[in-house]
Fold this protein.
Amino acid sequence: MLNQNQIPLLDALKANAARPHAPFYTPGHKLGEGISQPLADLLGKAVFRADLTELADLDNLFAPQGVIQEAQQLAAEAFGASQTWFLVNGSTCGIEAAILATCGTGDKIILPRNVHSSAIAGLILSGAIPIFLHPEYDPVLDIAHSITPNAVESALQQHPDAKAVLTVYPTYYGVCGNLSAIASITHQYNIPLLVDEAHGAHFAFHPELPTPALAAGADLTVQSIHKVLGAMTQASMLHVQGNRIDCDRISKALQLVQSTSPSYLLLASLDAARQQMALYGKMLMSRTWQLAEEARTRISQIPGLSVLEMPQLEESPGFIALDKTRLTVTVSGLGLTGFEADEILDEKFAVTAEFASLQHLTFIISLGNTPADIEQLVQGFTTLAKEYRRSNLTVKNQVWLNLDKTLNYALQLSPREAFFAVSEILPLTQTNKRICAEIVCPYPPGIPVLMPGEVITKSVLEYLQQIQAMGGFISGCNDISLKTLKVVK
């Protein structure tokens, strides 16, 4: 057992920031002396004294032998990993590195269609061939859940030469699929299970939260410590366990996708966040859990509103656990779209959601929230329901039913080939049967409909136009109005 009271990297940074010396190294502001006054007024000078580079006492992120190595070892123990890497380019670089470390050009990787764009970037960088699975989908709520064990097993039977399986756990809504079963199936083929656990870094610190990915059998997981814990924005971790992952390849891949001038402010924030959770995590998560439960209970009692809960009537293999600190409120019963409710809550009541969709608003309740925040949230919704209610919103969900059956996908080129191919931009009406050269992701339901390398079909174009007509929006592509698409020339 390591001494989790220690914060070796933070202590070393503090000591170097306080050491009197003449700095003739980067960064150019030289301990804050060259910082513009407006920025100094906002942040204070102390933060810039700690904005240091790879000095002898501060170790090197890409060849750690000192305080960074110690800090990463402490993090590995705290989060249940055999080895941990600190990430300063967000979870994005961790997902990219995971794919680069397990897949090469032409290798197959099984992954859900609702992956983060960083996974698509990983496909482009590596040259890997995606075998996409559709996640389980709730057509009433317009919410995509997890891929199922059966879907993974079927994909591996059809593609036994796949090099890895990647899944999202939890989803943006806090929904967790049966990761233990997926891990068991994946390991029968002796390949690694990679997990995008960006929103689940807190799972290891309270029994009421879903099982952490590593404890469920994942070989590699990437966590955004900044999203739900106490690190600074862009600070994440990559964890590995077992022997299915080549750790040397992870280190080398991270050198490709991380900055060679890592921010020690971000690195130190990871060290501090780890210590905070190792020492006080259960207490902090208990308090967070209680705040979330209060918000869920009170908001669910407001007429016209409901909150996302576990399925009650039948087993759902794509939804076996829910992170209740992630609060999704359905507002369509007020006759409002999620986008309208989001704007009203933000502008009128100073309540800002994580994101909005056609029927819902989703909020992250974390260790940084207070009882006053919860009160403001509940009162905002109470007033919204009383003063802004309209006749019920009619939401036609049938357009999103059976995505995998109504839309035919054909990968003509690998994402890498399509991305680097000569392309042209054409009016939407002229793109049928052409090869897509960009990501097209409608929301709702937040599942990419087109990827680089896929053939554009008439049914896909009609589907996208239907979603726009019903109030959805398109992301990921160059023209979000969808008047044009980028295709391979």
In short: Confidence is low (pLDDT under 50) at residues 396-406. The CA atoms of residues 65 and 245 lie 21 Å apart. The radius of gyration is 23 Å.
